[in-house]
Amino acid sequence: MGTIAAPPVQLTEPELKLLQTLVYQECGMFFDERRSHFLKDRLQRRLKVCQLDSFYSYYRLLTSREGRPELALLLENLTVNETSFFRNRPQLDLLQKSVLEEILRRKQERRDFHIRVWSAGCSAGQEPYSVAILIADALAYYYLRNPLPFEMPTPKPLIPPPWKLEVVASDISYASLRTGQEGKYTEPQMEPVDYTCRLRYFEKVGDKYAVKQQLKDLVQFDFHNLKTEFLPRRNDIILCRNVMIYFDEAEQKRLIDKFWNCLNPGGYLFVGHAESLFGLTQKFKMVHENNGTAYLRLEPRT
Question: What separation in angstroms does the CA of 94 have from each of 59, 88, 145?
Fold first, then answer.
C-alpha cells in the first residue's frame, strides 16, 4: 500500500496577506493578485519539505530565529532564476561599444585605471561572466589603439595593466551563487557562446564547460539583498536586469535611488528589456542605440 499524499494546505486570504507582507519586508518582492498562485505553489512545496501541515506553524517557523535558513530557502524558491549568456545582445553591444568606450576614455584622462561593475541579481553567473568577457575583449581592443607605457607581463593577462577590472556579482539565492562560483555550464547553457569565445574563456571538463581561472578571478560572488542599505558602492556600471519586475513602485523608486548612490558620477545603469525608469526618477537620463537601452546617472545641479 502506497502512502496517500496529504492534501494541499488551504490558504485563507489573511494568511496569504501575512506571507506577502513578510516576503515584501524581507526582500522587497511584491506578489500581487496575478502572481499569488505562484506564491501559493512555492509555499506548498516548502510545507511539504518541512513536513508541516498548517500555514500557521510554517509562519511561526519563518519568523523565529531558528527559521532564518528556511526563510532564505523560501525566498530562493520565489526568485525565478532564468538567465543565459549574452542575454539581450543589443543592450550588451551598447555597453561594450559606446558606454565602455566613453568610461575608458574618461578614466584614462584622469589616470584612474580601475573599472568596477556590479551585476545585481546575477543568478547562476552567466551575466557577470558575459560582462567580464565583453570588457576584457573591449579593453584589449582599446589598449591596441591607446597603448600605455607599462611592461606587459608574461603570460599575457586578460586585463592589460595598469587597467584593473572587478565584477561584483550578487544574488539573494545561495544556490545560484554556488553555481556561479563553480563556473561550470552544460552544452545547452553554452548555446549562445560562440566557438572563439569558448576557446578563449572556457575549458571542456567532462561534458561541461568550465570558466577559465583568469576569467573567474575577475568575478567575485557575494550574497546581497537589495532591500538592505549595505550594497556595493563606487561602480562604473550596474546591471540589474529583470529584477525590478518583482518590486512594487515604491520599492522600485527606493532601489533606483540606491543605484544612483552606488554609481560613480557618469556611471550607467542597465535594467531589463521589459523594465524602464520612466516616471520613476529624474536622476537618470535614458541612452538609446540600436535597440539597446541604458541609463546615465545625472549629477545634481549646483
Answer: 45, 10, 19
d(CA 15, CA 28): 18
Q: Is 205 exposed, middle or buried (0-12, 13-18, 19+ CB in 10 A)?
A: exposed
Question: Quick one: CA dihedral 16, 121, 184, 233, positive or negative?
Answer: negative
- Which helix (H) or strand (E) covers residue 102, if one does? helix 100-110
Q: Where are the alpha helices (DSSP H) in 152-297?
A: 174-182, 187-190, 195-201, 213-216, 249-262
CB 42 within 8 A of CB 11: no
Cβ contact 279:285 at 8 Å? no
Q: Is 83 contained in some domain? A: no
> Checking phi first, is residue 234 left (phi over 0); if not, alpha (psi -120 to 50) or beta?
left
Q: Is 298 exposed, middle or buried (0-12, 13-18, 19+ CB in 10 A)?
A: middle
Q: Specify whether 280 is located in the same domain as 152.
A: yes
Query: Rounded CA gap, 160 and 254, in Å?
Result: 37
pLDDT, mean of each 10-residue run, the chain (302 residues)? 63 86 80 78 87 89 89 78 82 94 95 96 93 94 82 85 95 91 94 93 96 97 86 96 86 94 97 87 93 93 77
Judgement on whether residues 112 and 240 belong to the same structural domain of the protein: yes
36 in the same domain as 95: no
Which grid cell is 158? 586578460
Reported pTM? 0.80
Residue 202 lies in a domain: yes
Number of residues assigned to the chain: 302
Cell of 222: 557575494
What is the C-alpha separation between 218 and 158, in angstroms, rounded? 9
